[in-house]
Structures are given as structure tokens and as C-alpha cells.
Specification:
CATH architecture: 3-Layer(aba) Sandwich
Number of domains: 1
Strand content: 15-25%
Order of helices and strands: EHHEHEHEHEEEHEEEEEEHHHHH
Structural class: alpha/beta
Number of helices: 11
CATH topology: Rossmann fold
Largest sheet: 9 strands, mixed
Radius of gyration: 17 Å
Strand order of the largest sheet: 2-1-3-4-13-12-11-7-8
Distance between the termini: 10 Å
Helix content: 25-40%
Length: about 270
């Protein structure tokens, strides 16, 4: 079987990725590549950042060659209207016309939902800082290939302050927890079949801890997620306990299942 062509869309601004690199943290595209390589090396992967490119032409001219697309996370908030966010929404709409299989993760799901006419707002029930607890798969999710062999209730790496509040037309919610009613979804738009996740099976808890330390001051003083550094430390201790309980393959099952889907009738 020939190698499949996969496009990864990097959702962060160039400056944010530079900040990551200067702090010794992988970009989200790099994390995705590492996680994908755990399951397969039979992919031709290209990375595109709609924020930093002056033109989409170099991708759009050959966009139909991609068998699938994974759109990853970002520190942006989609309701903060700016040119970089508008460019991402615009590029997602182009993908809907040309790429059949899309896995949209966290920010990627929020961009996909917005591009398809849904709505994303700041979460009214708090945020996920490094971890999402007690995500529960509903009946629709239990019958969906996204969750093949997944425990009905699970924890996952996650980092988000926002949530999907209005689903696109025809979308199906697959899982929830007490913070986000929509933890995953499935919908079709244009020629695309979109599987969406609000959490991050492709990112390790170790990276999440690095992100918490990287964003510590903002989490305390701007986001008001923690009272002080002691609360941050306790939260990190909690995530470190989860590391000991979690298994790599079960944490990333959604990615494995999407890759299996990607390879069917490719």
C-alpha cells in the first residue's frame, strides 16, 4: 500500500511557536508528528500554518493530493476577531471543499465548528488546565469508530478555556464532561467527514505540565485559574499522579482509530 499524504495544520502564531522553542517545548505540529510515528511511519506529512503564510496558493494548488488533514491546537480564542483567526477559518472552508477526512483537535475543532456555522464561546463552567477529568462517551460515541476499544469514562490531556455552544447543522455530540458539554463530535461539511476532539490525545501530560509552567504567570494573574504558585504546584502534582495511572496507547486511541479510518478506502 502506498504511503498516504497527510496535511498537519499548525494553529499557533509564529511568535508563540518561537516562545515554545525558546522554552524547550515542542510545537503542536511536532507533538502530532511524534504521536503519529508511534502508530505508523507510512505517511507523507506536510505542515502548513495559515497564519504565517502570505498566500494559501502553494497548498491549494495541490490540496487534493492529501488523503487527510489533522488540525491541531492553539493558544488563540476564536471569538477574538483578528486577521490570523479569519485566515484560519477561511483556510478551513477551503479544506471542506477538497479534503475528505479531517481530524480537528481542540482549536482545530473550534475552527471547524465556526467555519461550518456553529458557535464557540468562553466556557461558562471553567477551563481545562493540562487535564480533562471524567470525559464520558455517550450512546452516539459508543457506536462511533472514534472510540473503538476506549473506556466509556476516561481522563485526557487538555488545555482549553472555550467550548462549542452551538453545533453545526447535522453534527452529533459524542462525549461530554462537567466542563465541556461537547468533548467530541462528528459532522460532514462539503466533501469533508470531520471528527472533532476538544481534548488532546496526541499531547503528553509531561508537555502539559511544561505548558502550565510556561503560562504560570498568565494563569494566575490574567486567567485567574489559580490563586497562587502553591495552587499551581498542587495541580501539577495531581497531573503527575495521572501520568502513573495512564497508558500511552489507551491515551492515544482516538488518534489510532482515526488513522485506521484514514487508511480505509484511501
Amino acid at each position: 500500500m502506498k504511503n498516504l499524504n497527510l496535511l498537519i495544520v499548525e494553529g499557533n502564531l509564529k511568535d508563540e511557536n518561537e516562545n515554545f522553542k525558546n522554552s524547550g517545548i515542542q510545537t503542536h505540529a511536532e507533538s502530532l508528528k511524534d504521536s503519529l510515528s508511534y502508530f505508523t511511519n507510512d505517511l507523507n506529512i506536510e505542515v502548513f500554518n495559515p497564519c504565517s503564510e502570505k498566500s494559501f496558493d502553494k497548498v491549494l494548488l495541490n490540496i487534493k493530493k492529501y488523503d487527510g488533514l489533522i488540525w491541531g491546537g492553539s493558544s488563540l480564542n476564536i471569538y477574538n476577531d483578528c486577521i490570523e483567526i479569519r485566515r484560519q477559518i477561511s483556510f478551513m472552508k477551503e479544506c471542506f471543499k477538497n479534503i475528505k477526512k479531517i481530524l480537528a483537535i481542540c482549536w482545530g475543532m473550534q475552527v471547524a465548528v465556526t467555519a461550518a456555522g456553529g458557535e464557540v464561546k468562553k466556557s461558562s463552567r471553567g477551563a481545562h488546565i493540562g487535564i480533562a477529568n471524567d470525559i464520558e462517551i455517550n450512546e452516539n460515541g459508543l457506536n462511533h469508530p472514534l472510540y473503538r476499544s476506549k473506556n466509556k469514562k476516561f481522563n485526557s490531556p487538555a488545555f482549553n478555556f472555550d467550548e462549542v455552544t452551538t453545533l453545526p447543522k447535522g453534527a452529533i455530540n459524542l462525549a461530554s464532561n462537567n466542563i465541556n458539554k461537547v468533548q467530541s463530535l462528528h459532522f460532514k461539511w462539503g466533501i469533508s467527514d470531520i471528527w472533532g476532539l476538544q481534548y488532546h490525545p496526541e499531547i503528553t501530560y509531561h508537555k502539559m505540565i511544561s505548558l502550565i509552567k510556561f503560562r504560570k504567570e498568565k494563569l494566575i494573574n490574567v486567567r485567574k485559574c489559580f490563586k497562587d504558585e502553591e495552587e499551581v504546584k498542587k495541580h501539577i502534582d495531581f497531573i503527575e499522579k495521572e501520568i502513573k495511572l495512564s497508558a500511552k496507547e489507551s491515551r492515544m486511541l482516538e488518534l489510532k482509530n482515526w488513522l485506521s479510518y484514514l487508511k480505509t478506502a484511501a
